[in-house]
Structure of Imidazolonepropionase:
Amino acid sequence: MTADLLLTHFNQVFCPKDLGHPLFGEEMKEAQVLENGYIAVKDGKILAVGSGEPDASLIGPDTKIQSYEGKIATPGLIDCHTHLVYGGSREHEFAKKLAGVPYLEILAQGGGILSTVRATREASFDTLYDKSKRLLDYMLLHGVTTVEAKSGYGLDWETEKRQLDVVGALDHDHEIDLVSTFMAAHAVPPEYKGRSQEYLELIVEEMLPRVKAENLAEFCDIFCEKGVFTADESRYLLSKAKEMGFKLRIHADEIESIGGVDVAAELGATSAEHLMMATDEGIRKMAEAKVIGNLLPATTFSLMEDTYAPARKMLEAGMAITLTTDSNPGSCPTANLQFVMQLGCFMMRLTPVEVLNAVTINAAYSVNRQDKIGSFDTGKQADITILDAKNIDYPLYFFATNLTHQVYKAGKLVVDQGRIV
Ligand code: NIG
Ligand code: FE
């Protein structure tokens, strides 16, 4: 079969292995790295990859051939944990943070997430759409082709739905594919202060059924944290969500370890997020239950903490991990997944291969899109990130600079030399 598009002469092509499950522990060390590689695309899908000169059978009269000396290619990068849609911004809290006021203290004072809730409730659909689209543009320019996006700055039905509608509209309109997560349990809304169980009942009885009926989200998430929701409350919400057919995520062990990880393991959550304070016992449970650890080192950086999630311990215990931005207005104001990947190396001592596996094949499993993306297996969508680098180590080593040269989404050129085309 001949290709529509043939990208040739990459210095290296990074090919993660799709073993039919996320890469666990030692498996994350492995990948196929094609020297002098090519990628053949047909009908927006991967037709073949290989080393050296492409087979003549791939080339027909209409095949467009493009050469990439001095560049590398990876499957389109996947940002599998973001709080994409919100009103306002929070730089007014920066001085407090710099002076050492803790994140949970700012939240307890009615700031933090609750400040963004006020701004999001006031923001129209169009305002939220435009702001989120801009963030997606930044992400695409950094080589990201799929993004998970959570609600959770409404904490009332009307605003939560508006956030989810923005995600749906942008999934349709933007080149980036979006995966939607319902997270009304991101904080206790001011109207329910001191009545968190009642708020969770409202979510369970009224919001979740509507999200399901209108097919607004695939995952359900909760912030299990001291001063926010307890492990028992998280268990209550997520078990109900599971009964209704949602896949599960949980923000756990971010600032304090209060049992969210046990809930994730018990209920078979797809992933547990953050895990900065994960204990040895928690790691063992997640490894056993095959809960993916979504790690967010730029959040640790931005919170100015020095406890990065114990990624190496997790791999030794046989866990599958991903790296992701957490892009949000408070604990991690960034859209740059490449910087997160570099923190994975510099602060967590992951290797470039482990990091690249984390943001491609493992991130695909984490957003339940493994059949479509995350590797260059024949038949997968031709989402391709091309970096200005001669080998796969370089983009992890040369930090805080956007090295994206081009991005293809489903075989279509969508970023070319720093611009969206
Ligand atoms: O993942 N931890 C809870 N939620 C976000 C922060 C959101 C915010 O501060 O606005 C997080 O860190
Ligand atoms: Fe988060």
Remarks:
- The chain has two domains: 5-75+375-420, 77-367.
